[in-house]
Amino acid sequence: MLKIDSNTIIIDVRTNIEWQKVGIPKLYKNQTILLSWRLLPDMLLNNQFKQQFMTYIDNVKNNLLFLCRSGARSGEAAYFINNLGYPNCYNIIDGFEGGVNGVEEESNPGNIWKQVALDLNKHYGESVYKSWFSKISFLEASINTIILSTPTNFIRDWIKSRYIQAILQVWQSYDAGIKTIEIITKELPEQKQTVSGNFEKFTVKEELDTNSEGAFSTLDLRFTFDNFVVGGPNELAYAASRAVAESNSAVAESNPLFLYGGVGLGKTHLMHAIAWYIKHNNSKRKVIYMSAEKFMYQFVKALRNKDVMSFKEEFRSVDVLMIDDIQFICGKDSTQEEFFHTFNTLIDNNRQMVISCDRSPSDLDNIEDRIKSRLGWGLVADVHSTTYELRLGILESKLEQMNIHIPKDVIEFLAAKITSNVRELEGALNKVIAHSTLVGKEITLENTQNILRDLLRSNERIITIEDIQKKVAERYNIKFSDMSSPRRIRSIARPRQLAMYLSKTLTPKSLTDIGKKFGKKDHTTVMHAIKKVEELCETDIEFREEMELLMKILQN
Fold first, then answer.
1. What are the helix (H) ranges across 255-387?
2. Angle at which helices 292-304 and 333-348 pack, to 10 degrees?
3. Max CA separation in the chain (angstroms)
4. Domain check: are 447 and 549 in the same one?
5. Is there a single domain that holds both residue 373 and residue 404?
6. 448 and 511, same domain (yes or no)
7. How many domains does the chain fold into?
8. Taking the mean position of all CA atoms in its chain, how far away is CA 61?
């Protein structure tokens, strides 16, 4: 235990809200207290901080105690000051904070989790507890978010689908400030629980493994600009990506560059192509490319290791930051907070950001409005579904790369029938070529039809409610999110009713399932929509023709 004497200085880096809520620790009495800087991220970005700090503390041998609720900010402070030459930096974590009279409270998140687990055991019984809740470990806490971990994806998904709200409600009975419970898959070593009143000597943790070579280690060698086939659906996204790659600095009108579209349409290809081009033609520019999921895991790792400053320095010092599948951070408050500040720092310093997503910024749910707004600051480029002509070009380019010739009618057949996405189109071509090579049969139209029989049948059969919603929204020039909104103005309600009717006609889903996809509406609302569309088809020829056209488009 560290001896507290006149050479000890406490530095409180909690927020005003935390300070008012928790109170003043007993340790404050008769000790020197430094309360000038409470918001650590602002503190560390303030150029005057170092000078102020060194003026205030004239003895580098002072014991410096950094205090905050979770240990994240105080850990950062200890790391920062330790690097300034002060060896005795300590981190006081959550369990030390007590009431105004110095009475210690059971506010340690690790201890709260123990009590939450006991309550869940009482409510659900020993069998459920042993099967599921006993597999959960407490990982990290922020001001309003708790991060738990499970050893497998299966356990994580099962708990999230059945028990996440129960866990949150029980936790809020102990700490009403917690708004979100996040669960990740992480096989962890045995955790050392925090004990109230203990001090941890701060040590520098291992740095993030995101050096320049690592930043390119996940790139696919096939995904370059040279083998990207350009056509109407992707020409804007291609041109913008090329401009970003060829520039020596951020492209103002395309910062951030936001690429969005369905699965397998070329977003990731363009992201990789940008990174490869910069690596080979402008290697002095520092680039990081990673998925949003990996961004979150790196952030959580930094929190666990109390090494958030290394994380911030790594991601905020790049010239180009590329984040794939940004929709992954939807609903993850702590990760969104860090992404927001990283975004602002890079844009303010004229650094380039490139982001991909499966939908436009305006259609993202469970993401902060301030982030949604910033994602649309630059150029938002949609990568549309492929046309017949573009699919022909993709197949011909692929065959040229492989130095293989197949009959023209086979190429045209593939381009006409495999319409879902580029990935499936190339997969079908590879299957036909592999079958011919292994079996020794000539590639003909008839053989191709037999080889791809199951795939073709699947393509013809499966239409999803989401497909219908997207197509109807596109046709009537409304947002995809309007399909599940409560808005009742005619320009939105009528297309939504039509989409419900088509969902019942073209999918095997029940009225209840359809209602859930349209903003959790009940089955009677869907029945009313179907009846309304049927009536309009009888009385309005133009409306009926529009409905039939949409049905043909979806079926083909």
1. 267-281, 292-304, 308-316, 333-348, 369-375
2. 100
3. 91
4. no
5. no
6. no
7. 5
8. 43
How is residue 257 annotated by DSSP? E
Task: For residues 343 and 339, give the distance between their C-alpha atoms in angstroms, rounded to a whole number.
Answer: 6
pLDDT top residue among 215 and 143: 143
Whether the Cβ atoms of residue 32 and residue 9 lie closer than 8 Å to each other: yes
CA 302 to chain centre: 17
* 388 located within any domain: no
Task: Verify that 166 and 292 share a domain, yes or no.
Answer: no
Amino acid at 206: E
Alpha-carbon span 282 to 268, nearest angstrom: 21
Q: What is the pTM of this model?
A: 0.46
> CA of 318: how far to CAs of 3, 91, 314, 357, 361, in Å?
43, 29, 7, 21, 24
> pLDDT tens, 172-226?
888 878 888 988 886 444 333 333 333 333 322 333 333 344 455 467 777 888 8
Q: How far apart are CA 233 and CA 384, in angstroms?
A: 5
For residue 55, being part of any structural domain is answered with yes
Q: For residue 159, what are the domain limits?
A: 109-185
Q: Of 253, 217, 213, 216, whose CA–CA distance to 236 is shortest?
A: 253
Contact 469, 480 (CB under 8 A): yes
- The domain spanning residue 341 has which CATH number? 3.40.50.300
* Mean pLDDT to the nearest integer, 319-344: 89
How far apart are the C-alpha atoms of 522 and 423, rounded to whole Å?
37
Q: Which of 407, 429, 461 is the last residue of a domain?
A: 461
| Selection from 555, 550, 542, 553 nearest residue 501 by Cα | 550
